[in-house]
Design brief:
The chain is mostly helical. It has 2 domains: 146 residues; 92 residues, no CATH class. Helices cover 72% and strands 0% of the residues. The longest helix has 41 residues. It is globular.
């Protein structure tokens, strides 16, 4: 997996995607069968499950982690369960509960014989919860702290409802899988971070025309970011909403530190990179280009 990820990262590191003219919201996926198929196609291995949430919130190029089928499936799941994600009513892109989607994949991976009816019931819970998230975003848009508290409560209620559909044996199977994924994350974190950082530095050097001093400084900034990510995982264990908010704040700090190293022309180009990066988060196509 490490070798494949490294190869994919290097390949994509040399490609910069142009911004595309996109609509403001996802195209809703209304068919239950389409969503059930998307759930099956979004079948991540343990190494992918260990990284997907932080890569999503760090707005990294997720096409280097997911194959095309998985990428398209994630698009369908975002569009089908949270059609307003990243749109005018959710411009911060927090209307989709990525933590719940990861939890769903954990449940299904740990319990491959789960019935289609139970899968659909789990999807229905997520869709209804994402709709409530949008209402909370509108209600508490001027009170970020209360909004975060409300979103955390909504997430916790959703997870409780999801596990309420499972037997005790099925719940234990998920807990066992989580322990294995955490073991993999701890063993591979440094290697994964180095691969991802090197790819980002290569890509930025190619596009922005960084000199060696700038490239090394940016690499140091990204290394510090990944070290802090580990601290945040420990700090917000069991609190994906808190983790999401903390990662987004960290990303902003990282961007500011990088921009401070750039010339005016480079900074303008970096802003274009961020625009393309944010287009994925707003549901614009399953290419997930960073």
């Amino acid at each position: 997996m490490k070798h494949l990820l490294f190869s994919a990262l290097l390949a994509f590191a040399l490609v910069l995607s142009a911004c595309e003219s996109q609509s403001d919201v996802n195209t809703p996926v209304t068919s239950d069968q389409t969503l059930l198929k998307a759930v099956d196609n979004f079948n991540l291995d343990n190494a992918q499950l260990a990284q997907v949430d932080e890569m999503f919130w760090l707005e990294e190029d997720m096409s280097v982690l997911l194959n095309p089928m998985q990428a398209a499936a994630l698009d369908d799941l975002v569009g089908g369960t949270s059609p307003n994600f990243g749109g005018s009513r959710d411009h911060h892109g927090i209307g989709f509960d990525m933590g719940a989607l990861v939890e769903l994949r954990l449940i299904l991976k740990a319990n491959p014989d789960l019935s289609e009816e139970t899968k659909q019931a789990l999807l229905d819970l997520i869709t209804a919860s994402n709709a409530r998230r949008l209402e909370l975003i509108e209600t508490y848009k001027d009170n970020p702290e209360e909004l975060r508290a409300q979103l955390t409560a909504e997430h916790d209620a959703l997870i409780a409802a999801m596990y309420g559909l499972l037997t005790a044996e099925e719940v234990q199977a998920v807990e066992d899988l989580k322990a294995e994924i955490e073991r993999i994350r701890q063993e591979m974190r440094d290697a994964w971070a180095q691969i991802r950082i090197d790819a980002q530095v290569v890509r930025l050097t190619s596009y922005l025309g960084l000199d060696d001093t700038q490239a090394q400084a940016i690499k140091a900034i990204l290394l510090d970011q990944y070290q802090k990510i580990q601290e945040l995982r420990e700090q917000y264990a069991g609190d994906p909403e808190g983790f999401r908010a903390a990662v987004q704040a960290l990303l902003q700090t990282t961007d500011e530190a990088i921009i401070a190293l750039l010339t005016e022309e480079q900074a303008a180009k970096y802003a274009q990179v961020k625009t393309v990066r944010l287009d994925w988060r707003r549901g614009h196509g399953h290419g997930m280009r960073g």
